[in-house]
Predict the 3D structure of the following.
Amino acid sequence: MANEKITSRDKDFAKWYTDVVMAAHLASYTSVKGCIAIEPNGYAIWEKMVSILDKKFKELGHVNVQMPLLIPENLLKKESELVEGFAPEVAWVTEGGKNKLEERHCIRPTSETMFSDYYKDHVKSYKDLPMLYNQWCNVLRWEKETRPFLRSREFLWQEGHTLHSTSAEAEAEVKQMMDVYKWFHHEILAIPSITGVKTEKEKFAGAEYTLTNEALMYNGVSLQSGTSHYFGQKFSRAYDIKFQNKENKLEYAYQTSWGTTTRMIGGLIMVHSDDKGLVLPPRIAPRQVVIIPIGKSERVFELANKFNKELNDNDITSFIDLSEKSPGFKFAEAEVNGIPVRLEIGERDLENNVITFARRDTGEKISKNLDIDIVSFTKELLLDIQNSLYNRALERRNKLTFVAHNLDDMKNILNSQPGFIKADWCGNVECENKIKEIRGCKSRCITEDELIDGKCVCCGKPAKHNVIWGLQY
Amino acid sequence: MANEKITSRDKDFAKWYTDVVMAAHLASYTSVKGCIAIEPNGYAIWEKMVSILDKKFKELGHVNVQMPLLIPENLLKKESELVEGFAPEVAWVTEGGKNKLEERHCIRPTSETMFSDYYKDHVKSYKDLPMLYNQWCNVLRWEKETRPFLRSREFLWQEGHTLHSTSAEAEAEVKQMMDVYKWFHHEILAIPSITGVKTEKEKFAGAEYTLTNEALMYNGVSLQSGTSHYFGQKFSRAYDIKFQNKENKLEYAYQTSWGTTTRMIGGLIMVHSDDKGLVLPPRIAPRQVVIIPIGKSERVFELANKFNKELNDNDITSFIDLSEKSPGFKFAEAEVNGIPVRLEIGERDLENNVITFARRDTGEKISKNLDIDIVSFTKELLLDIQNSLYNRALERRNKLTFVAHNLDDMKNILNSQPGFIKADWCGNVECENKIKEIRGCKSRCITEDELIDGKCVCCGKPAKHNVIWGLQY
């Protein structure tokens, strides 16, 4: 069976994760250390993510562009915090066309530098603003420990970069795009994420502040899954991006950036999947229905074709598995690949005018009479699967959300069953560092919730923020 | 006016080209030598190219994947012809994460290496074949002289890579994909290209043979615009890609690759555009109709909105220019940006119940009564523009297609008005090299046409092929 080799999720979560990635043919290792090949099943999920997000970005007025992959060292160095943040993890091109280069070029770890260099030459007046750009591309960060989709030296992402004439407009953009990420996680990926502000220690290098979207995996470990940064005038000062404002005065422009990556595929796996393989919410599943004919009679194939056409004509992505494998093997393959609905059309069932649906999320089998309205029934079934997956994930998240009043609480939680840990914090990085000593626990985000008991979970002094803490990928 | 600064095409073609690229905001230079920023107007054309080609590839059974950007040196070296062909023009990563790497990695100039390495581990039986993969990505070649879109160190492309169990099937794939490129040029880009086989000298490094799609620019220079390669078992032997065939014997698999790039945007410009800026065939234009309201009356805007909605509801991409510029400025901007149809809705015209269409290709203005069926009229107009552009390009190509019987003919043609030059060839590379001495003239492709006079244009000995020659970008 296709899913025989998957380790139990509750027994060894890390191994289970890799097993699902491999068994569902989402990605495979390559001869390039720390870099994966994204296989057809994995890339199809990314394509669906891209198409949904891209449409939303464009509806909000953004346009796509493409900046160079390479960044000359002198250009990268102009914004000191960015360099310090990224210098330890970039790859350098030092030779080109058989010659040693006069100046090293790094492969982009992110493109604030290139966009800033572009704005500098292209913005003159407030009439040119806002500039609402996005780019779909690959970036490279020389990570030491890598895992498919979650942390890879090269990964695919979108990076939005916008420039504005006022701070208010730029800050509204930062918030708007975080709302898009939250919407995408909740409505499309069925992942009940939490959003908030990163602490100073955890914010993006060079940002005034960073908003983050944090998802909780099945094992209680957090996954940062989308960030949105407000830069104020920091990059504008470093790269000299000025515009003539309405009062005819030169002013530095206000900047943002925001991004999501192929790591969301990892998130999908670790929130929804099970010991049989991949489980995909219907809205992100590249193929929503697989029709499996059982038997060789003409009627079976006639009906398979008829239903397949009806579903595809009505915006449900369906296909017929016509391969030469046994029905049992096809069932297992559909399961491991995470196809939300399986429709069995069997010779013997047809004698009773019956067809059978099977849900991937629950395994439930539903027999229906042949005269069913296949389109509306399948639509409802897919919607129910989408909602059930969300609710199941929400239940799990709530179950794994804890409150800590002191460091002992924190240690107990982290050493038994990690999760989102809500705790008050005084705002000092010293306490943040001390908490990190417990299994590497980090602040995930500052929430807007009220304080729990008003005392810092670490030092006991008056608290400033209600913060969510946790282990992370 | 937006198009005032464009040099005359007939006066200085090279300068005209760059002027159009800049004036239409397709791309701009960057601080990275030899690399451009593809701006929103240019990227929108690429997105449309991608969507049309991707759909076609998928209809033919291909699936998308993503292989790593970096290639370890030892892996690249396995196929000697490929290394020799590409080694002079690759960029090398030698440092990563502050450390010198034990082994250099090049940035992919093309990905036969990575696909071969992937196949090796993933193909076991003839049942796993064919593997029909494609990848949309960036590649890098360390060119010395660069020009926006035509030759850039980094460019975007698609590279199809397929693996087959028989040579016949692989060769059929090579031909099929060349037919797709030809279809795309003729039907979508309105470019009457010519396809044929490359000579041994001009074929892809490592290929058994290469099919090519060659377009002729307005100035008579050729642009190679899409190639499809048959590798036979060459890479399979180098990378050890074996499969169990139907006779239960191990056999090396048969391989192909095929690609098109952002340079097609350069081809579009150099075939169709004029002294007023960009001209785009409607089928590739990201925006097909611009509606320009003239005057401030409510009726003008009501009608603009009504027509805009009707067009967009019927698969015609239309927008209303609501910017604060003068109508004259908007006209010029629509022209320079290559919007195929301009619809003027003017207060005064409306008194006579008239609206005015203007064709970008001919400049012709057409007044129509308000009760016109706007959708069917615009569809016909767009189709007529599409066909006219193709016919105009075909006429130009025919006008610039010459026949040479000897080297003097060749010299005369190349020194007065270059173009496609048809001439017989004996098949010896010595003659090819001698012809190249004339202004760098190269064989474009071997045609399937009959011989012209049976004698090699260079040495006069018996000819083997009717070949098209020309200058190239």
Remarks:
- Chain B touches chain A through 54 residues (CB under 8 Å).
